[in-house]
């Protein structure tokens, strides 16, 4: 195919991606360098407020009021702040202070304790807490999803009954396909105060469990949701991979007297290795974007994620500029995460030529 | 060794018997809740049996006008699938046939775009679309979802096209067809399985999107999924919560049918992506 | 599509009993677009306005459940599609401070007689009437009167009484916890803090400035009281919002809570509740003997966006029609109305007692929202034992300062 034809064919798709992915990235970076607000001045204002039928309270205070231009419209300001927004998201000042004070005050306790304290100070800042949980979530779910997906694939592969296989794949596909928001809610409703799960555990004599009481339990639930909803993907991929294991190498292994474990270890796992890498790559990308379960389960207090943090700043705080700054930081994270994937593709590309 | 293999099989079956109900249980409970009055749905301890009522569905669909959201969902998903597949097929085909390294770089950039958290893009869309006055329009939402979905779509379609032997279109070219004619007349007719599978995934993206749709559209223009946000955020009474559950069930039912009818294509599509990815 | 929706909306509004005044007094023709919250009294108002349609007058009333975000969005457009918008004390303060509302003094004067506008409905910023309120809401004490009687307990008047009663009620086996509270980390928790802190005499800002002052001894004491109270609640307390607390009440699992008056009527709805008729309502408890009830009063009302391009006069008439004396007369039980012809029901007894006891109105200060959200995001750390009260308040102060700088209030 000639380059010109190629360009014509990919044109519309590339245009869409440039206009709505690449350009917004530039835009976000631009917005993050500015701050916007309505100009205010402190003015004494008497507010009159009803408190009940016929009863009125009057309050006179000095409060910020908008500065109006000659047409009576508020004056807006749009100022260049450079990396100011990013520093504010990272809370560099606050952390610098914390580190400085810890170093001077706590000579009595050991270095390790000081480091731990410093760590707590850092993750007390929303951004670092979000980063912490996003990474934690990714690192815990990844091996769990790979292992469970593999075991399920092996079990289905060995299961004899066709009907059983079919309905199993069906049940497994559901958590993956369902709207993530609905999936998160469906799990959340199980773990409410006195909900199904806590009653079930109580009936089994395990005592009363409160699932929404602290960071540990709420984070565990989000991770559980993560495993529940992403294992199916790994399962399907591994299951498909198992169909292509060369039968003769398995038979050869059998003749050599290899145990099922040895067969798995020396024949099947190496065969699935490329798929494991593929699943890991996709999983890391998706885990980094975790959003819906944090929206449903989390609060800033117990669990936060990078995508949720930006959403919160945009939606609840209505602060475009700061949201843009946390978006820029998120993108930097994506770039770092993708380095291995890019290198892998690059190598393959070179080999191909 | 025989015992060993048997133990393996047994433990596998055991794992499956535990997993399958676990995978499905949250849905079953959600379905049960949606059909109960609040006093039963939130009873302590939870009840296995209770009176059945469909009033939450009635309220959500008829009174709250969820059917409007359902129509919006149809408009948005059909629009996204149509546009996404059209421009995606063109690009996927070209990527599978072109040998230069621009193709590789394009796919690599697409991979990076695929990993972009959607909220990053949303942060730029919101002020820009407000300024341009084009928020809350179906066209805007469709084209945004198409663009977000392109990286995945072109990767997947490329691998489907790569499976079609290039002798086929080359023969057509030799016979005097133009590229585009060869593509439409010769390649597309054998491409349907790939198009259906990719279309399913485009559908899922548009159908399941909450973040972008809920932010770019307001009440009357939201899809069903985005409209669910009204129920989670509303700090209202328990009946309203159950209406939210009924809404969630309503969103889930079409997906269950989708899995029932298209299980093969879904699995096939994932595998295709994995093998070629 | 939206015409279809309007048609359905019209028919469903008929389900709510609302009796429009026999003769609608609106004069003029044209279209009026309204956006409002979707609670029952808003539906009543919408219904009353709709009854005026015809003779060249069209009213498009949008009831939304996402009013907190949808309304500010609609009002930031250069020309807003709405002529009337519903506001609360919090949102009106924000919108006014951003210069997005317009004064309605002339219209109030013109129609004062015709619609018998009560002075107590007018929300003034300085001399400007920026909003017209129609209902109030506040948190007040909900309690199981049967259980209090059983143990010979008086209705608690202070939080000391509440704690003493909770100690006694712990032995009651039918309930799981004596107390509950809307302590969900974030907005809800901060609201509880605001209630207690103001009633204890605390100030959020240095008078006449935006400098925060809530990081002080009273703040620490308030946090300690919150923690003490939480000891009698479900360990999940930081995840419980109003709806969750309501559920615990309705399932007979708790005995006392400080809840929004708007939820009171549902306690007697057998479809939701197992404790019909067993719950009574009183003023919010005070933080100390003889103190004022620890709650803040909120109002809901209507305002006119500055960026509208419709007919002000017509819009104003429609607004007044939707909250007329007749509407109040015919829908007494729906909410706590502000009009003078409102006769409080048993469910409003708690708000009435709180208001009479001198409970504070929620501060209508533009930067209050920032302080509220800074507190909501930080004081939870103290309640879970991660930080001391002083540290949590210091963090909240830092967060407030950052936000106030970004909003341009602080330099």
Layout of helices and strands:
The complex is a heterotrimer of chains A (about 350), B (about 280) and C (about 400).
Chain A: H1 3-32, E1 34-38, E2 40-52, E3 55-66, E4 76-80, H2 84-90, H3 92-105, H4 111-123, H5 126-158, H6 162-177, H7 180-190, H8 196-203, H9 215-243, H10 247-255, H11 260-288, H12 292-297, H13 306-315, H14 320-352
Antiparallel strand pairs in A: 1-4, 2-3
Helix pairs in contact in A: 1-14, 2-14, 3-4, 5-9, 5-11, 5-13, 6-9, 7-9, 9-11, 10-11, 11-14, 13-14
Chain B: H1 2-34, H2 38-41, H3 55-63, H4 66-97, H5 101-114, H6 118-132, H7 138-162, H8 166-174, H9 179-187, H10 192-208, H11 211-216, H12 224-233, H13 238-276
Chain C: H1 2-13, E1 30-36, H2 40-50, E2 57-63, H3 67-76, E3 84-88, H4 89-97, H5 105-111, E4 122-125, E5 128-144, H6 145-150, H7 159-169, E6 177-180, H8 187-199, H9 217-230, H10 242-250, E7 254-260, E8 279-282, E9 296-303, H11 312-322, H12 325-330, H13 349-356, E10 360-361, H14 368-378, H15 380-383, H16 389-406
Parallel strand pairs in C: 1-2, 1-3, 6-7, 9-10
Antiparallel strand pairs in C: 3-9, 4-5, 5-7, 5-8, 5-9
Helix pairs in contact in C: 2-11, 8-9, 8-14, 14-16
In short:
The complex is a heterotrimer of chains A (353), B (277) and C (411). Chain A is mainly alpha-helical. In chain A, 70% of the residues lie in helices and 10% in strands.
Task: Provide an overview of this structure.
The complex is a heterotrimer of chains A (353), B (277) and C (411). With 353 residues, chain A is mainly alpha-helical. Chain A has two domains: 92-120, no CATH class; 127-352, MetI-like fold, CATH 1.10.3720. Chain A has 14 helices and four strands. Chain A has helices at 3-32, 84-90, 92-105, 111-123, 126-158, 162-177, 180-190, 196-203, 215-243, 247-255, 260-288, 292-297, 306-315, 320-352, and strands at 34-38, 40-52, 55-66, 76-80. In chain A, the strands form two sheets. A two-stranded antiparallel ribbon of chain A has the order 1-4. A two-stranded antiparallel sheet of chain A has the order 2-3. In chain A, strand 2 and strand 3 form a beta hairpin. Chain A is globular, with a radius of gyration of 28 Å. The longest helix of chain B is centred in the C-terminal third of the chain and has 39 residues, at 238-276. With 277 residues, chain B is mainly α. Chain B has a single domain (63-276), classed as MetI-like (MetI-like fold, Orthogonal Bundle). With 411 residues, chain C is an alpha/beta fold. Chain C folds into two domains: 2-134 and 298-342, 3-Layer(aba) Sandwich (D-Maltodextrin-Binding Protein, domain 2), CATH 3.40.190; 138-297 and 350-406, D-Maltodextrin-Binding Protein, domain 2 (3-Layer(aba) Sandwich). Chain C has 16 helices and ten strands. In chain C, strands 1, 2, 3, 4, 5, 6, 7, 8, 9 and 10 form a ten-stranded mixed β-sheet that branches. In chain C, a hairpin with a 2-residue loop joins strand 4 (122-125) and strand 5 (128-144). The termini of chain C are far apart. Mean pLDDT of chain C is 88; it is low at 1-21. Chains A and B meet through helix 1, helix 5, helix 6, helix 7 and helix 8 of A and helix 1, helix 4, helix 5, helix 6 and helix 7 of B. Strand 2 of chain A pairs antiparallel with strand 4 of chain C.
């Amino acid at each position: 195919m000639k380059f010109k034809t190629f360009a014509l064919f990919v044109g519309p798709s590339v245009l869409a991606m440039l206009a709505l992915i690449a350009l917004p990235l530039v835009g976000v970076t631009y917005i993050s360098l500015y701050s916007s607000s309505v100009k205010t001045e402190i003015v004494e204002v008497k507010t009159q407020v009803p408190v009940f039928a016929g009863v009125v309270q009057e309050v006179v205070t000095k409060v910020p009021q908008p500065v109006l231009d000659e047409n009576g419209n508020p004056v807006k300001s749009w100022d260049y702040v450079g990396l100011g927004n990013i520093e504010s998201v990272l809370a560099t000042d606050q952390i610098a202070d914390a580190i400085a004070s810890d170093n001077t005050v706590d000579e009595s306790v050991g270095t390790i304790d000081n480091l731990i304290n410093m760590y707590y100070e850092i993750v007390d800042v929303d951004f670092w807490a979000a980063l912490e949980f996003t990474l934690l979530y990714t690192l815990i779910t990844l091996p769990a999803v790979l292992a469970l997906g593999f075991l399920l694939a092996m079990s289905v592969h060995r299961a004899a009954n066709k009907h059983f296989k079919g309905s199993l794949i069906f049940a497994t596909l559901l958590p993956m396909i369902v709207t993530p928001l609905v999936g998160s809610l469906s799990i959340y409703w199980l773990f409410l105060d006195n909900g199904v799960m806590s009653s079930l555990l109580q009936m089994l004599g395990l005592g009363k469990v409160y699932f929404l009481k602290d960071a540990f339990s709420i984070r565990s639930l989000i991770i559980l949701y993560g495993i529940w909803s992403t294992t199916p993907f790994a399962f399907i991929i591994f299951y498909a991979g198992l169909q292509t294991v060369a039968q003769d190498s398995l038979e050869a292994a059998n003749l050599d007297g290899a145990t099922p474990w040895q067969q798995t270890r020396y024949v099947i796992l190496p065969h699935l290795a490329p798929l494991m890498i593929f699943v890991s790559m996709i999983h890391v990308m998706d885990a980094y974007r975790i959003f819906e379960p944090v929206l449903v389960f989390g609060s800033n207090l117990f669990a936060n994620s990078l995508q949720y943090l930006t959403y919160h700043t945009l939606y609840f705080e209505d602060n475009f500029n700061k949201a843009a700054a946390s978006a820029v930081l998120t993108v930097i994270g994506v770039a770092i995460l993708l380095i291995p994937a890019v290198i892998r593709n690059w190598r393959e590309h070179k080999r191909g030529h | 060794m025989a015992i060993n293999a048997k133990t393996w099989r047994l433990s596998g079956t055991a794992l499956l018997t535990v997993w399958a109900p676990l995978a499905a249980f949250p849905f079953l409970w959600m379905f049960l809740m949606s059909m109960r009055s609040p006093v039963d749905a939130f009873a302590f301890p939870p009840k296995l049996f209770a009176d059945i009522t469909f009033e939450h569905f009635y309220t959500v669909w008829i009174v709250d006008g969820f059917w409007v959201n359902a129509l919006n969902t149809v408009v948005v998903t059909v629009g996204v699938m149509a546009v996404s597949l059209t421009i995606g097929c063109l690009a996927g085909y070209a990527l599978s046939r072109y040998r230069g390294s621009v193709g590789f770089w394009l796919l690599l950039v697409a991979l990076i775009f695929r990993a972009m958290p959607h909220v990053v893009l949303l942060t730029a869309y919101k002020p820009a679309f407000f300024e341009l006055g084009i928020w809350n329009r179906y066209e805007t939402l469709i084209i945004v979802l198409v663009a977000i979905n392109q990286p995945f779509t072109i990767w997947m379609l490329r691998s489907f096209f790569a499976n079609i032997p290039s002798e086929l279109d080359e023969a057509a070219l030799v016979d005097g067809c133009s590229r585009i004619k060869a593509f439409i007349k010769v390649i597309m007719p054998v491409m349907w399985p790939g198009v259906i599978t990719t279309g399913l995934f485009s559908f899922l993206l548009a159908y399941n999107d909450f973040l972008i749709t809920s932010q770019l559209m307001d009440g009357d223009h939201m899809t069903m999924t985005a409209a669910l946000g009204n129920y989670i955020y509303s700090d209202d009474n328990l009946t309203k919560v159950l209406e939210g559950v009924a809404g969630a069930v309503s969103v889930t039912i079409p997906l269950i049918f989708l899995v029932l009818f298209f299980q093969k294509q879904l699995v096939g599509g994932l595998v295709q992506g994995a093998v070629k990815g | 599509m939206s015409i279809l929706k309007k048609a359905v909306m019209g028919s469903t509004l008929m389900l709510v009993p609302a009796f429009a005044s026999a003769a609608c007094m609106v004069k003029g023709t044209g279209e009026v677009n309204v956006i409002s919250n979707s609670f029952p009294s808003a539906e009543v108002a919408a219904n009353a306005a709709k009854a005026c349609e015809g003779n060249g007058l069209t009213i498009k009333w949008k009831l939304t459940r996402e009013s907190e975000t949808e309304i500010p969005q609609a009002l930031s457009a250069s020309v807003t599609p709405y002529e009337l918008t519903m506001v609360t004390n919090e949102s009106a303060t924000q919108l006014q401070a951003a210069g997005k509302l317009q004064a309605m003094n002339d219209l109030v004067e013109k129609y004062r007689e015709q619609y018998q506008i009560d002075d107590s409905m007018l929300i003034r910023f300085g001399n400007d009437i920026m909003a017209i309120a129609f209902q109030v809401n506040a948190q007040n004490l909900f309690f199981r009167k049967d259980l209090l009687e059983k143990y010979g307990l008086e209705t608690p008047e202070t939080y000391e009484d509440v704690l003493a009663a909770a100690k006694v009620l712990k032995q009651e086996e039918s309930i799981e916890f004596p107390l509950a509270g809307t302590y969900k980390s974030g907005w809800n928790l901060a609201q509880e803090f605001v209630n207690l802190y103001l009633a204890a005499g605390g100030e959020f800002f240095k008078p006449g400035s935006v400098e925060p002052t809530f990081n002080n001894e009273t703040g620490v004491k308030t946090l300690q009281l919150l923690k003490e109270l939480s000891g009698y609640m479900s360990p999940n307390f930081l995840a419980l919002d109003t709806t969750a607390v309501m559920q615990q009440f309705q399932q007979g699992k708790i005995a006392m809570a400080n809840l929004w008056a708007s939820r009171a009527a549902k306690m007697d709805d057998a479809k939701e509740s197992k404790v019909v008729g067993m719950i009574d309502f009183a003023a919010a408890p005070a933080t100390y003997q003889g103190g004022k009830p620890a709650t803040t009063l909120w109002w809901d009302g209507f305002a006119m966006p500055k960026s509208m391009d419709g007919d002000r006069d017509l819009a104003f008439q429609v607004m007044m029609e939707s909250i007329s004396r007749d509407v109040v007369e015919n829908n007494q039980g729906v909410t706590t109305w502000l009009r003078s012809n409102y006769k409080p029901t048993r469910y409003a007894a708690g708000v009435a007692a709180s208001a009479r006891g001198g409970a504070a109105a929620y501060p209508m200060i533009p930067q209050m929202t920032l302080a509220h959200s800074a507190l909501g995001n930080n004081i939870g750390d103290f309640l879970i034992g991660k930080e001391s009260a002083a540290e949590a308040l210091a963090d909240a102060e830092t967060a407030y300062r950052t936000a106030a700088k970004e909003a341009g209030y602080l330099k």
